Amino acid sequence: SDLAIDVPGHGKVVVDIGYGGTFYAFLSAEQLGLDVCSSKTRDLVSAASAVTEAVKKQFKLHHPESEDLAFLYGTILTDGKNAFSEEPTTNICVFADEQVDRSPTGSGVTARIALQYHKGLIQLGQTRTFRSSTTGSLFTGKAVKATKFGNYNAVIVEVSGEAFYTGTATFTVEEEDPLKHGFFFK
């Protein structure tokens, strides 16, 4: 937590990095001269992407079980309201190749709750509500149990929200297919 990162075009900012199934950098949009609720999405995406690239260049991540998981997936810009409150806190998740999540992001909410718990801003059992700045959709999250993961202090988080099917697919395996069970590249 509280890592000073130099972001080209924005100067020094302070980020937290949290893990909730993947790693994200977190900071208030205000540090970048933006407002997560009123700035243009394109401006938020550009700034978040610059943060992601800067963190990747200036900080090495470690995962206690698999180095394959030790990469920064994206940056979540927030409204800076990290202390417990009954009022929703708003964020935008910019991940992968400048994609924007339509929701507050399940893995992002998990990581944000873990960071808030780590910093003593919320307690076990306190439910926070998270709002997507792009769609207004809501997720809730709460820390339910303190634990350890490798040598790291950790917390088990419950997240809930609403999701909808956007499509279905049917896969058929034919018995005569010699590759029906898959294959490996050497």
Automatic annotation (TrEMBL):
It is an enzyme of class 4 (lyase). Signal peptide: none annotated. InterPro entries: Pro_racemase_fam. The keyword ATP-binding does not apply. It comes from the Eukaryota. Keywords: Lyase. It catalyses: trans-3-hydroxy-L-proline = 1-pyrroline-2-carboxylate + H2O. Homodimer. This is trans-L-3-hydroxyproline dehydratase. It comes from Mystacornis crossleyi.
